[in-house]
Amino acid sequence: MNEAPLLYNVVDHTATLTINRPEKRNALSAETISQLVARLDQAAADDDVRVVLITGAGEKAFCAGADLGGGVGGKGTAEYATLLKRLAAFPKPTMARVNGYCLAGGMGIMLACDLVIAREDAQFGTPEVNVGLWPMMIGALIYRNMLPKQAAEMVFLGQRFGADEAYRMGFVTRVVETAVFDQTIHDITHQLAAKSPIGMKIGKEAFYAMVGMPFAEAVDYLSGKLAEVAATEDAAAGVAAFMEKREPVFKGK
After folding, report:
1. Nearest to 99 by CA among 185, 31, 7
2. Tens digit of pLDDT for each residue in 187-228?
């Protein structure tokens, strides 16, 4: 097995970042966090990349949180904050492929992604309270993705729960049977990669920026964003393809 703590490859416009510490349930070391930030920056700058997929190596875990014996703290804590901010503001669609345990800091990474596809046996939770800690930084994402009382129960009790419950709580996009899990991931990434990169960038920015705006302000803001996206070459190409009943070819301009 490759010993690198993070694997990175690009296939069909999708950059896959795989946390590669399966013997530790893909727990985050300081080095792993640093490499995640660097690879996200690389994917953002690569015009061939239209989608970012984050997952964990092996079959047991997406990410079990911080490696408490792996030096996370100090610089690692600052880097983790940088990682969450990079993901939250990433200009391309991001998706978490949750293939097992997704706990603590792993939940932070998952919640910072746009879409979350969970295998049917995935397990979620914030167990920090059980060892005298608290899910501090990921709280900024928890309370943006969950209802307050549900979030409080999860954080205060530190218990694990399954994928169906996570879906009911609203922070998992889709729960998928194991037999069709990888095919579903493949299908969704291909659908995302087929969209206009510039349209997706402008639209994603608007989608999150309008949250919390007063209604009138949001409508005015979105009106400006509509004009911006409508002026792109991709929009013209997409409309022409629709009228001619063919698939569009987007160039990201």
Report:
1. 185
2. 999 999 999 999 999 999 999 999 889 999 999 999 999 999
Distance between CA atoms of residues 106 and 127, nearest Å: 11
Q: What is the average pLDDT value for the chain, to the nearest integer?
A: 94
Structure tokens at 213: 């705006």
Identify whether the C-beta of residue 34 lies closer than 8 Å to the C-beta of residue 4. Answer: no
Pairing of strands 6-11, 174-176: unpaired
Contacting residues for 42 by C-beta, under 8 A, at least 6 apart: 8, 15
Q: Measure the CA–CA gap between 211 and 40, rounded to whole angstroms.
A: 24
* Length reported for the chain: 253
pTM: 0.94
Q: Cα(71)–Cα(189) distance, rounded to whole angstroms?
A: 34
Query: 162: Cβ–Cβ under 8 A, 6 or more apart, which residues?
Result: 121, 122, 123, 124
Residues 21-60: tens digit of each pLDDT: 999 999 999 999 999 999 999 999 999 999 999 999 999 9
Q: Which pLDDT score, from 0 to 100, does residue 74 have?
A: 58
